[in-house]
UniProtKB/TrEMBL annotation, chain A:
It comes from Odontophorus gujanensis (marbled wood quail). NCBIfam families: small_GTP. This is RAB2A protein. It comes from the Eukaryota. Residues 1-17 form the signal peptide. Its main location: cytoplasm. Pfam families: Ras. It is a lipid-anchor. One of its GO terms (cellular component) is endoplasmic reticulum membrane. It is found in: Cytoplasmic vesicle, Secretory vesicle, Acrosome; Endoplasmic reticulum membrane; Golgi apparatus membrane. One of its GO terms (molecular function) is GTPase activity. Belongs to the small GTPase superfamily. Rab family. GO terms for biological process: protein transport; vesicle-mediated transport.
From TrEMBL, chain B:
Keywords: Coiled coil. The keyword Coiled coil applies. The keyword Lipid biosynthesis does not apply. Pfam families: RabGAP-TBC. One of its GO terms (molecular function) is GTPase activator activity. Residues 1-23 are annotated as: Disordered. PANTHER family: RAB GTPASE-ACTIVATING PROTEIN 1-LIKE (PTHR47219), TBC1 DOMAIN FAMILY MEMBER 14 (PTHR47219:SF21). It comes from Odontophorus gujanensis (marbled wood quail). It comes from the Eukaryota. Residues 47-89 form a coiled coil. One of its GO terms (cellular component) is cytoplasmic vesicle. This is TBC14 protein. GO terms for biological process: vesicle-mediated transport. Residues 120-330 form the Rab-GAP TBC domain.
Amino acid sequence: KIYLKLFSLLFLGVGKSCLLLQFTDKRFQPVHDLTIGVEFGARMITIDGKQIKLQIWDTAGQESFRSITRSYYRGAAGALLVYDITRRDTFNHLTTWLEDARQHSNSNMVIMLIGNKSDLESRREVKKEEGEAFAREHGLIFMETSAKTASNVEEAFINTAKEIYEKIQEGVFDINNEANGIKIGPQHAATNATLAGNQGGQQAGGGCC
Amino acid sequence: EYEEKTGRAHRPLSPKQNVRKNLDFEPLSTTALILEDRPANLPAKPAEEAQKHRQQYEEMVVQAKKRELKEAQKRKKQLEERCKLEDSIGNAVVTWNNEILPNWETMCCSRKVRELWWQGIPPSVRGKVWSLAIGNELNITHELYDICLARAKEKWRSRSTVGAEGECEDAGFSAADREASLELIKLDISRTFPNLCIFQQGGPYHDTLHSILGAYTCYRPDVGYVQGMSFIAAVLILNLDTADAFIAFSNLLNKPCQMAFFRVDHGLMLTYFAAFEVFFEENLPKLFAHFKKNNLTPDIYLIDWIFTLYSKSLPLDLACRVWDVFCRDGEEFLFRTALGILKLFEDILTKMDFIHIAQFLTKLPEDLPSEEFFTSIAAIQMQSRNKKWAQV
């Protein structure tokens, strides 16, 4: 059983919290609660026959909270960098956020670039090719999603986890260091998700989903 | 009751039940049916059967009356209790209005007042008491509010005429971001107490909330709008007139703890968290150890609680009572409340792991029992090795 800590980053109103809610609860809520500080989501997925528990930290989007958000980068195995395809300004800020994330996280952190709100094609301001080009240039994985229609939401989270999983297989991550956001639990724990997997004080546990 | 109903429906039919079974005859109101004779196309009821039915019917009526009486008594008792509660609130209102408020300076610290204060301030005087307790160190006048508001309105206007293309263009990490907060306010107002439906676009307090937050960004451009403020302003609006709400809002945010948080002074916030942990360990050592083991740091739950002064995480009436005592005791009470919450749910929390605790504390149950909650807060000692909060 593998525990992964993921992050969602970036702007206000791009639908970070909505993406998370769609992934963990499979529902869409147009007016989402304000996130102040950090909120949490969790879900169990299976990759390559291995049970993987994703723990997602949904962080506040306002600039002012960046000094707080920064302290959460560390200890994350992956991050979701989200912009809104109907708002060019959110795309224009990616570089600054990316630099900030790279600077304050461990160097192996997998970053997924997400262009959200793909259901609003008529209001699109950022072309898909632009997102792809940005991702290529900075070595990120890229996807366009819609939290509203659930399109690609599942894939975005799972692909991020896959990429991390592959890195683990390649031995890139030091899995004994919890600061990397990865924790390998005992084999048998996976069979019973309702038993809170609380071995050795790791940061994730039993299935709540 | 169901049996009685069906019994009532079927009994008159019993002798001929077999014949009528497939008629799907289901009378809704049976009273008339029981007392009436059978339809003309059927043989008449024998006298003794009719007598029996009448008797059964009367018995049912007696039972029903008894039940009604019982319910009436229960209702009366509830009403009496409510009246008693209202009386005590009414009495409290009189005491606050006639005795305490006119002699605020001399009385506000007396034991009797402090005790009455702990019980919760009656809603009709709440705003006044908050205003007095928060004070107006900044000497803000209604005129100053008008000026700030006018300036904010000017900004909104110029923003909408300059055009949307430059909206957040240079919001980056510079001071220009603070300007962008005017845009952000709009977005957040719709997410402030969405269930109340009074702050949203078209709601009665939408413009008021917008005005106060806008005026504040002009009054304190160095702080600007920070998420969480909309909740504080909203609670004040519910209890005070607009200009007074602005005065209370600005003075409240000017308090050291609020300033540290709203300026997101990370170092100072960490100091607060560290002090909180001292009292956490002192009061709830078992839970503290459990949190430590799970790497659950106080920032995870305290940030939301302190930024919104519990108005987002607690039911509104409870949040107001927390505000009452916060106005009396100051920042210390915010942390005491946090410990009260942890104490109240100690048993559940010790059985949870990181993610469940984090999710639980960032979304507290909606049906928090108010009396137990305040008893739990009262049980928290804000003294550690003879040191008080301020000293720690």
